[in-house]
């Protein structure tokens, strides 16, 4: 599927005497802002703005290139426990891994996304990007709230849930989500959970 500034290419290569015509499905608007400028001006990305500044990713998001930012909204950050958020914000390495997990290495417009697509993030992990009816999905969950916000260096999709990679979790958090969750409960009962956090 080919897109032009996130407009789907419907018919290509109509040859005329003075050139070639490609038919697309929407009007292309002028794009002047970088991904970083979108983050700086969008009210619903205030927490992300703070996180990007703390992780020193601003220069990347305003540089030339073609990226996809899965931008967690303020609502997405509010959904995780406050102590978990504070821990990640206070750990530069975990914060950088978290944000890099939300950046794809290429620009991916919604029109070009098909079911079963695996995309690599800047963190080196992968995300399953797909669709369910009209909704886009990440790892099987329809969490993209707003799509195809165009930037001069890529595209931004707003997501209403935080995607936390394993590298940004404590041993305790990883264990709670795995097959050893009962063992985790035993550590907690024995007063040893602090060693896992």
Automatic annotation (TrEMBL):
Q: Which Pfam families match?
A: Fasciclin (PF02469)
Q: Which GO terms describe its cellular component?
A: extracellular matrix; extracellular space
Write out the transmembrane intervals. none
- Record-level Gene Ontology MF annotations: cell adhesion molecule binding
Query: Residues in domain FAS1?
Result: 1-28, 32-163
Q: Write down the superkingdom of origin.
A: Eukaryota
Instruction: Provide the GO biological process annotations.
Output: cell adhesion; extracellular matrix organization
The record's section on InterPro entries has: Adhesion/Biosynth-related, FAS1_dom_sf, FAS1_domain
Protein name, as recorded: BGH3 protein
Q: What is the species of this protein?
A: Picathartes gymnocephalus
């Amino acid at each position: 599927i080919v897109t032009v500034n996130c407009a789907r290419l419907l018919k290509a290569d109509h040859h005329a005497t003075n050139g070639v015509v490609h038919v697309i499905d929407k009007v292309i608007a002028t794009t002047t802002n970088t991904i970083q400028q979108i983050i700086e001006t969008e009210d619903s990305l205030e927490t992300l703005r703070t996180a990007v500044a703390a992780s020193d990713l601003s220069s990347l998001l305003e540089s030339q290139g073609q990226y996809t930012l899965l931008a967690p909204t303020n609502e997405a950050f509010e959904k995780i426990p406050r102590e978990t958020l504070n821990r990640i914000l206070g750990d530069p390495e975990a914060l950088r891994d978290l944000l890099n997990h939300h950046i794809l290495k290429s620009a991916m417009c919604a029109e070009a996304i098909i079911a079963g697509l695996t995309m690599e993030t800047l963190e080196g992990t992968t995300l399953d990007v797909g669709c369910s009816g009209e909704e886009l999905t990440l790892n099987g969950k329809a969490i993209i709230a707003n799509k195809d916000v165009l930037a001069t260096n890529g595209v931004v999709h707003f997501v209403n849930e935080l995607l936390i990679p394993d590298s940004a979790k404590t041993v305790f958090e990883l264990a709670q989500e795995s097959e050893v969750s009962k063992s985790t409960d035993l550590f907690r009962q024995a007063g040893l959970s602090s060693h896992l956090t």
